Amino acid sequence: MRAGNRKTRGEETASAGAETPLRVLLACTPSAATRRLTAELRRAGYGLAQAVDSAEALRLCADQPPDIVIYDLAMRGMDGPDFCRALRLQDPHRRSYLILLAPAGSNGNIADGLRAGADDFVTLPADSAKMLARLAVGERVLRMEAELRASNAQLRSALERLEVTQAALDRDLLEARKLQQGLVRERSGRFGPFQLSLLLRPAGHIGGDLVGFFPIGDDRIGIYALDVSGHGVTAALLTAQLSVHLSGASDQNVALRAAQAGNDAVPPAALAHFFNNMMLEEMNTDTYFTMIYAELNHVTGLVRMVQAGHPHPMLQDPTGQVSTVGQGGMPVGVFENPIFDELEFQLPPGSRLLITSDGITEAANRAGRLLGEEGLEAIMRTNAFLGGHAFLESMAWSVSEYCRGERPDDMSAVLIEYLRPAEAIPITEH
Length: 430
What we know:
Helix content is about 40%, strand content about 20%. The chain has 12 helices and 16 strands. It has helices spanning about 10-15, 30-45, 55-65, 80-90, 105-115, 130-180, 230-245, 255-260, 270-280, 360, 370-380, 390-400; strands at about 25, 45-50, 70, 95-100, 120-125, 190, 195-200, 210-215, 220-230, 290-295, 300-310, 315, 320-325, 340-345, 350-355, 410-420. A hairpin with a 2-residue loop joins strand 6 and strand 7 (about 195-200). InterPro entries: Bact_Sigma-Reg, PPM-type_phosphatase-like_dom, Sig_transdc_resp-reg_receiver.
């Protein structure tokens, strides 16, 4: 390509060896000035074609599109603006650089031509230095456009490769989602008068929440709800590891290992401290998690619980009144000597305990207002007539409606219901 203050086009081409001269179409009425301009262009090394009217110029542009078109506004046939529009419509994807030759005093036609698609103009009489300077500008523009097209082509190719990679990643994440959902082996359980129902709904393909339960002897069950910080693969891998430590197999379940030796199961607070030491000593990561782990005696209704930074459980008594449980406690995996909240309470018949992750209480509407404990309490009151998975699904729907489907965090919940015994219906004889 040409540059300012340089050799002629022919000298530059000879030195480059492989460079192809730019093709110029000179569409002018024959005259002495035209002949001089033709000689100058050839001397500068341009590949030159000529047309004597607008129809021939458009035909030559269609047959072999030139790099630069020089069009005389006094040309027979179309006026300048009409020719500009016809040229641009002829091949909108392959733009030739269009220079208008304008007789003195034709400012109106020049402005109309530029609006119709011309790139530059030269007023007549045009000396060779002025014309060659305009051609140099055209070359620079064409070079930048070519570089931009090449960059866009590379970008499109990179995007296509990225789309293929993303599609493969999406397939893998969908499979990972299935595996993660499989970590919750049972979504519900019935233990005497107690009914357990679980909800696990990641915000993306995979998430960092985990809920579940397992039996402890004949009269107790362990119930857990975990929320790993962050999202994506890192959080999902940690939840997978934690699920192994809380699985129903007594040889892998940390809470049940002591029971193998004839001792009682690990108390809730001791389990939280075990996980805290594991996170600090074995995990080389900044990830932490919140947790609630409870032992429920399904014969007496006694609950022993540890709360480690997890949202407060919501207790709904038989009259429908809702209150929070616990003081909070510290997350697992942050402090060497954490303080966890240990509590013990009795569930009365007809009550229920709802444990949720912060993906529910911290769901925000478009104004940025969080649902909070008050919003969750309202949902529990509104859906007091529902139980089990019907209640959890209705709660999840209400949360999604509150944040208009823009839910950035995972949702998980455990619903513990202390069912009342069915009342006998007396039969009246007639």
